[in-house]
Each structure stands twice: as C-alpha cells, then as structure tokens.
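Sat 14:20. Reprocessing the chain from the morning session after the first attempt stalled halfway. Input below, unchanged.
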Amino acid sequence: MSKKKNQKKSASKKAPAKKNIPVKGIVIAAVAVLLAVAVVVAVVLIKKNNDGNTDNPSTHEIETLPNEGTQYTYAKYKTTKLPVEFVEILNQAEIDSKAACEKYGVALEIGDRKISVPEFVFNYYDMYSLQTQSVQYSIEQTGQNRTGYDTEKLPGEQNPPQKDYTWEESFTLDAIDSLKIIYSLFDMAVEAGTEIDVISIASVIEECEVVEEKSQREGITPEESLANVYCEGLTPAMYKARAIMETYAQAYENEKFYELRDGYSQSEIEKAFNEDVDAYKVLRARVYPIEGEYNEAEAKSVKNEKEFLEYARKNYPTDGYDAEFTTDCGFITKEKLSSVYGEEVGTWAFDSSRKKGDIAVIEGMFFRYLVYIDTPAFLSTSCNVITLEYAYDDSMAADDRANLFKDAEKAYTDWKNNDGTEKGFLDYSTNNGGMGQATVRTGEYFFEIDNWIFAPERKAGDSAIIDTPYGYCAVYYSGKNADDFDWRLTVSANKASADLDEFYNDLWDSDYKIERKSSMLEKAYTEADKSIKRHWARLEEQQKDK
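Finished this time. Tokens:
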C-alpha cells in the first residue's frame, strides 16, 4: 500500500507520465478532468536500421546466448539480446504484419514501418476504450458524464468539446501518437541494449498468455477471440509484440529520464526555479463543479468548508456521494489544477493573497467551480515518516475489515502506551512488514496519508492510524528535511521533460514521418465501428444477464 501515487481510481489504461515518474504504456489524449499525460525520451544518437516490414522479415535468427544466471534463455535480436520467447514473438509479428498489409491493406506508414488495417484498428479501438473508461470514471466521481463523449454514438458522429473535428479523428491522432512512441522508444531501447529485470519479463509473459487463456474460456481460437474484440487479421503475435515493445520502451524511457534529470547542476536548477517560483508551490483545495439548475446566490452564499460540503451533497444528482473525498484535490501544483479545471481556477487559487478558508465561484474550463482553499500555496519539503500497514481490498467483508482495524489499533496502542518513541515505532514497523523509515514528497503516498503528512500543523513526533480505501496505515511523522526542497526534484524533472520532448519532436519530424492512406483508413474506421457495435451488444447482453 505504501508510497504509491493516489489517482482516485484513475481510468487510464497504461499511460506514460510526463513529469517525475514515467509509467508503462501508451500516451493518449484523455479528458482534461481526468489526466493530462505526455511521454519523455532520451537525447541519444540513433542509428537507422531495417526494423519495419522488409522483404525478409524473419532475419532475426534464434541464436541462443548464455543463461547468465537467470531462469530465462536469451537470444540475439538485432544489436541486443532478448529472452527467446520475445524474439520468437517479434519475428512472427513481423511476418504477420507484412501478411496483414498485403491482405487487408496499409492504413499508415510511420517511418519505415507499414501499419496494416488490423493493427491500426487495434490501436484506435484502445483509444476508444480509454475514452469510454473516462466516461465511466466521470460518472462514478460526479454522477454525470462530463467528458464530452457520448458512448451511445459512434466516434465519427460527434465532436470533442470545442473541436472542429470528430472523435474519430481524435482517436486517430491518439493512435498515431501511441504507435510513434512505442516504435521510437523501442528502437532506442534495442540500440542501447536496454534490459528488463526477471519480474518484468515474467509480467510480459503473463500478459501475452492472456490471449490464449481468454480464447480457451470462450472455446474459440485466439485469432477468433481477437477478431471479436478488434477485427479480423489481428494475430496473437501482433498483439503480444506490442506488450513486449511497450515494456522495453518504458525501461529505456525510465533510464534516460532519470539519467538526464539527475545530471543538472544546482545552479541550473536554482536558475530555473527563480524564473517561476509559483510553478513549484503546492496547495490543498476543494473543487466542486456547478452545473444543472445553477443557483448563483446559493453557491455564493457558501462561507466555509462545512457549508461547501453540504452544498456539494445537496446538489449532487444521486445519493451516496462522498463529497469529502471527491472534492478534495489534495496537494496540487498550479499547472495541474489549471489543466484539470481551467487557468482561471489555478490563477485564483495560487494568488499570493489567498488564505485558508477563502472560497469563491470561478468560471473555469467546462463549468463554474466552487473552490475552497484548505491550505494556501507553499514550497514543500520532503518529510520522513515511518509506516505500518494493514491492507484490505474491496471484496473483504465488513467484519474482516473491522478485525483488521482492531489489529492496527492494538499494535498502535501497544506502541503508544508501552514505548511511544520513534525508535520503538521503527523497530515495530521493521519487524512486522512495514516500510520502516521513508523519505516522501507530496503526491507519493495515498491521498489520505499524503494529506495527513503535509498538513501545515504537522510536527515531529505526531502519529495516527489513517483509513484509506486500501487499508489502515499507522504513521509516525519524524519531521521535515529542511534542506531537501521538493521543488529541486520538480525543477530537474521539468527540465528533463522539456529537453526530451524537444528531441523527441525533432525525431518524429525526421525519422518517423507519418503518411496516411485515406482509402484504407476509411476501411479501418468501418471495421472499428463494427467492433464498437459488438462491444455495445456485449454490454447489452451483460445487462440482460443481471
């Protein structure tokens, strides 16, 4: 449970983050109220090579290499080595991709690669899936669909908010971006000889096995199973190859991002910081989007946090709304707050005159927002904490969860009554599965824990049991690291992102040029619409079964 970013049940599939910590997967243009992510890459010299659809795509012969102490056997792949299973899949995927281009047509060319209609539909449909997940997330969090996407219409029949093109084009742009990212990063990973650990290898193999396992449950072939979800022509090898490429691309991205981030001098970091101090501050706020039968006088009459929460509960369209949790933005930067709710909200919240308890109705990105300031903007430092965790999951019975709390409470009470020292808490944590002493920054722990740790009134020696959606956590606060400002890491991460983005854009413009095949794209859209309609039919059947 410890030291994971709380995303409030983010609906994203697999998305590489732009800032401090890249995450495995594909970047997509998701709804602003959920997430805004981009990818980072390295500044390296890349050699051009023939890794697209060639006349003889099976040239990567299986040449077994020494085991080197792991349970996996490796083979040579171009200029590097990969597990034999991966080389076999990638070889077969190249063969299948060329065959699909010849049989079904080429939808895109990205650099040297030809993207067949089935491969494009595969990526396009995943963009559609993520968008529908965003809709579901919006409904779960707010009771209404605030994404601008109508799940009962096809992508070509509707436009994104404030855009003059359809969602069909939006998903196409996202699919192209995801393919460019995978291919360019994977190429660089191969060129650099990037390796992944055995745990990651096992994870990829497990993901690859999903195709066969699903088809066995359905009593059909893997090809038929993929065709039911995507379209005819997508083979298991093509599906699996993307999982392999994503994993190596992410490993390479992580290596190069941290290498660049950690290479800036103190003077460079401080210069960037002084150019825009406010960009590195965080604050804690509550935000409630106002819509429907908006009563301006009622919203503007809200004067404090209690009235704010009462207003949110009263005006929420369905019962069971957790206003206290859902409206809490946690500790958030101006950039993030503005990207989610609009620049007007960010500008007001981070104004230097803001103080605790300030509240206002702000005209934001999509709606008017009722905004409450819990903690005005400040420069965060890292803090040291000790944790002892008791995890549960959503399926755990209430009685079991209550017993788990009793266990946490007993351990915490025993420590407090019989010892009460920091060393005693550390010893108990270390000996009972806790993380021991850890240095944390805002946003690294679960939401509720993060809010407790970085509360303005927190002082060394404080302790508590905190209830999160994932379990109970006994926490001991050791204190701030006064000389380790969070902004130092943020500045270097921002600089790394900017430098890598600039290089990556140059790379796309040169080595990864895009050529659309209009007639084949139209064919792909037709196939994608069919897959969406099959998805609707499955949902309808599931509703009937209920």
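The two ends are 33 Å apart (CA to CA).
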